[in-house]
Amino acid sequence: MRAPIGNFDSAEPAAGVGHFDGPAAEAIRAWTGTPPADQLLYVDTDPEKADTAVFVEHYGEDLVGTSANCVVVAAKRGGERTLAACVVLSTTRVDVNGTVRRRLDARKASFAPMGTAVEETGMEYGGITPIGLPAGWPLLIDASVAALEWTLIGSGRRRGKLIVPGKALAALPGAVVLEGLGV
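Structure (tokenized):
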């Protein structure tokens, strides 16, 4: 099957990819939401080409406006720490000190340390994805990502990416779509 975005050798429904494993794979294999699971696609990518400029040059210029990043943030208030995930277009950055801090009602918010993000999600750094996050985590999604017909996101690993409809991300457990999350 041809990928709906990018120049990948092939795309296939992620639920049927045998070598795709981890929390994201488990969540996709258990998917019962809308859109149907066969619209959640897996594309194989070379981890050596993960740098954004190299990735876009190799896999397609159209990915500039359709790729999204998922980052883990830590919000603190009164000694309590809340971890959350934020999804924004790869051409923007997460408004941690504004939109995130207010939405999570935190006194302070910052990007979670790499070790914390990896340990808590069970995913590889550089491949963290909103699909398969720990239960109960807030998931903040920029409205521009949710509005995309197709978006490229991580797969939970450095090798491979997922191509999914933006509306699939908005339908994930704990998801809240926000204007201005990405600046």
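The mean pLDDT is 95. Residues 12-174 form a domain with the YbaK protein fold (CATH 3.90.960.10).
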